[in-house]
Amino acid sequence: MAKYRPTPNAPHLTRIVLGASIALTAGIAAPAAFADSHPPLSAPPAESVNTPKSASPAKTPLEIQAEKLPKVSAAQVLELAAKQIGIRENAQGGGTKFHDWYMSSSRAKETVARDGGSVRAYANAPWCAMFVSWIGEQAGIRPTMGWDAYTVTHAKWFKANKHWGQTPKPGAVVYFDWNGSKNLDAIDHVGFVKKDNGDGTITTIEGNTGVGRVEQRVRPKSQVVGYGYPVYAG
């Protein structure tokens, strides 16, 4: 995975071509740095001690947020992601519509404030997380998909919102560590789960993979750190 670390004193990035993740900072801010369009990261309200056991469990912040959003299924998100297959970066490692969108978003300014560097630094940055974020934006469910250019922060946002697990559901956001750890700080890459193949592998749709394209791939589950679960209809 390609990881880079812009700082206020180093606006020009050094790109180490190892894959598709982006590491922007040594000291990662708490997930609460997300824009106010995202739900708070506090735990959902505790059940009253007098609540009958048969009562429905309290909704998570993401589930509450989803009530205000369009009803979008996992299949629709995967269809949108599949339509991007073949899009590729330029010779400098950037130039995609995913880069352009992220650089124009308010989130880019927030992540620069958090991590240093400049918005221009994203122009040729590794873009796997930008691809996932762009899909959420285009589908109209960004508040439950999350958005960031740094895979680690994105994964920690899902976990803080209690939408994190180890089951490869279709439409889940899948995070990889090529060394096979379960350490969120070691995440190298991110994409979408298309299906569990039932043989120890998953089929995925990912940005910035292979030679810098959106591709459908088959990955071993042994390289998966975990899965983030957007809120889907149906």
Automatic annotation (TrEMBL):
Key words of the record: Signal
Gene3D superfamilies referenced in this protein's UniProt entry, alphabetically: endopeptidase domain like (from Nostoc punctiforme)
Domain Peptidase C51: 103-229
UniProt-listed InterPro entries: CHAP_dom, Papain-like_cys_pep_sf
Annotated spans, Disordered: 39-58
Keyword Signal among UniProt keywords: yes
A Pfam family assignment: CHAP
Signal peptide: 1-35
PROSITE patterns in alphabetical order: CHAP
Domain of life, per lineage: Bacteria
Protein name: Peptidase C51 domain-containing protein
Organism encoding this protein: Streptosporangium fragile
